[in-house]
């Protein structure tokens, strides 16, 4: 499972020295695996304490960025603890889920890149 933590990233200075940038993914790093794809979605979501994201899969590259809370991310048959500042990569067509731990909700930012030629996805049933 590919989980990158913002707390482990050293900032780089950009824009003529005016902006520190903490890259979790460097420019063009994902070009080969997403080539021909399209931006499927960008959203924020929250999983309440005691709940869980229904295990599902879809034809997208997907990333969850943990904003608040703690949880266990499941990608395929691997479980990983995640905390604020973690970026989780979910490959296309791999079953994944997320459940909060620690007594509170977990709040994430999500974006996905669809595979070239992928059908439309009904997210209400996935």
Number of strands: 10
Overall body shape: globular
- Order of SSEs: EEEHEEEEEEE
Q: Taking Cα atoms only, what radius of gyration do you get, to the nearest Å? A: 15 Å
CATH C-level category:
Mainly Beta
Percent strand: over 45%
What is the overall number of helices?
1
Q: Any idea how many domains?
A: 1
In the CATH hierarchy, what is the architecture at level 2?
Answer: Sandwich
Structure in words:
By secondary structure, the protein is mainly beta. The protein has one domain (2-114): Sandwich (Jelly Rolls), CATH 2.60.120. It contains one helix and ten strands; from the N terminus they run βββαβββββββ. It has one helix at residues 31-34, and strands at residues 2-5, 12-14, 19-21, 38-47, 60-68, 70-75, 78-82, 86-90, 96-101, 106-114. A five-stranded antiparallel beta sheet has the order 1-8-5-10-4, with no helix packed on it. A three-stranded antiparallel beta sheet has the order 7-6-9, with no helix packed on it. A hairpin with a 4-residue loop joins strand 2 and strand 3. The longest helix has 4 residues, at 31-34. The two termini are 21 Å apart. The model has no long low-confidence stretch (mean pLDDT 96).
């Amino acid at each position: 499972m590919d989980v990158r933590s913002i707390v482990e990233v050293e900032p780089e200075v950009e824009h003529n020295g005016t902006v520190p940038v903490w890259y979790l993914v460097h420019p063009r790093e994902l070009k080969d695996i997403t080539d021909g794809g399209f931006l499927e979605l960008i959203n924020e979501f929250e999983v309440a304490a005691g709940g869980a994201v229904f295990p599902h899969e879809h034809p997208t590259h997907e990333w969850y960025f943990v904003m608040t809370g703690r949880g266990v991310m499941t990608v395929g048959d691997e479980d990983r603890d995640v905390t604020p500042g973690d970026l989780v990569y979910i490959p296309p067509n791999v079953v994944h889920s997320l459940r909060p731990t620690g007594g509170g909700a977990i709040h994430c930012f999500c974006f996905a890149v669809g595979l070239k030629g992928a059908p439309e996805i009904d997210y209400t049933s996935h």
